[in-house]
Amino acid sequence: MPANKRRPRVHISSVAWLLAVFISSAIVLFAMLYWVTHSYLMHEVDERLLGEVAEFHSVGRAEAIADITALSERDVASSRPYGVFDADGMWLAGNIPVLPDARDGKPFDYDQTIRDGNRIKDAHYRGIIVPTRGGLRIVVGHSIDETRSFDRTLVNMLCVGLTLTIVLAVGCGAALNVMSNRRIRAISLTGREIMAGQLSHRLPTRGTHHDLDRLAGIVNTMLDEIERLVAEVRGVCAGIAHDLRTPMTHLRAGLERARRRSETVTDYEDAVDAAILQSDVVLNRFTALLRIAEIEADGRRASFGDVSLDTVLRDVVELYEPVADNRGLSIFVRAPESVKVHGDVDLLFGAIENLLDNALKFTPSGGMITLEAGINAGQPVLHVADSGPGIEVGEREAVLRPFYRGPSQRARATAGHGLGLSLVAAIARVHDADVEIHDNQPGCKMVLRFRGCLLAR
């Protein structure tokens, strides 16, 4: 039988353990119910018997014999028997023929043979011996046959209830086991498909708060991140292959051309310089990729601390002001208040540097670039806006991917590796920030919105 068709075994040990705990709890509960009910009924009988003590304790001999004789002739005499005995235990009156061997004033159980119509039967009583001032001993009894019958009925009911409880527990345990195994089997099959490369599949959920649903939700979130990372790796691999093919082709063609055509030392030196230039292009691309990988590794969080975002912003602008002046661009900084975030000062400097560098590349001469740091809705926010051509709505997610270059001629003619905004996105993820791209009308507005950073003013 194939592995994915094999039926899961029922875990008898776990089911039996839970069943044993449940049945033990039910037995204890039913035993307590029986004990409480029986104790209550016997307490009621004892209270009535103790009430008889005060009534007969002070009666005289003649009065006691007369009263007991009258009580013994009632219709309920068989269920409420009485007897009078002298100090030596000799019977004087009543329908209790023998003085029981028991302590005075303490309720006790005893049996007595009585006639019920045409048959003789054993009856069960609860009694008490009342000593009188005249030296007599009066025995007061109370039938407990009905109580014993009720006890037997209660025991039978409890046994039936316990049996039904056990059957129900076993049935529910088996049903829960089958349902759990069915869900686990479905999760296992989906897991095998995911391991086979179907990264778009997700573990099935039912939209409930069940433990398996919550676990599946956590795993699905992890799979979303894994799928994103795998897609990025595939994109990076394809981008590397595509982006490095041109400089490597130029390098090889230059070397072949030098081998065929070079005749002087100067020719060879020029060929070597061109090869070094193309090698630097390749190395710069790998350096940028390694930088992104280093940033996305959580090890950089160890160097996090309080960073003044407005100060970093001014430092970057001060560094790039000469470049802006040479290109005929104006740079304005707006940071009216101190904005502090929890992060790495070098990474934040690099992110702002890349955003400003992109703005300088794509803003035509005479344009304006505005950088702003502030607090919006309790969150630190950084804006870098320019008056260039902007980014089309359909490309705003794509430009954050490595090696992506816009389809416009200006974008393809601009020097670069297509890794600047990818670097910014990686730095933003490390700082729990969102990268937003908006229309500046005209131009592009890049926004870094810090969600999880420590805010201090």
Q: What share of residues is helical?
A: 40-55%
Main sheet: strands, sense, barrel: 5 strands, antiparallel
Number of helices: 9
CATH architecture of the largest domain: 2-Layer Sandwich
Order of helices and strands: HHEEEEEHHHEHEEHEEHHEE
CATH topology of the largest domain: Heat Shock Protein 90
How would you describe the oligomerization state of the chains in this entry? single chain
Structural class: alpha+beta
Could you explain how this protein is built, in words?
This protein is α+β, with helices and mostly antiparallel strands and 457 residues long. The chain has three domains: 57-143, no CATH class; 211-296, Helix Hairpins, CATH 1.10.287.130; 301-450, Heat Shock Protein 90, CATH 3.30.565. The chain is 53% helix and 18% strand. The protein is rod-shaped and about 155 Å long. The relative contact order is 0.07. Mean pLDDT is 79; it is low at 1-11, 409-413 and 453-457.
Furnish the topology, listing elements before pairings.
Elements: H1 12-56, H2 61-72, E1 82-85, E2 91-94, E3 108-116, E4 119-131, E5 137-143, H3 145-195, H4 211-261, H5 265-296, E6 305-308, H6 309-326, E7 330-334, E8 340-343, H7 345-362, E9 368-376, E10 379-386, H8 409-413, H9 420-430, E11 433-439, E12 444-450
Helix pairs in contact: 1-3, 4-5, 5-9, 6-7, 7-9
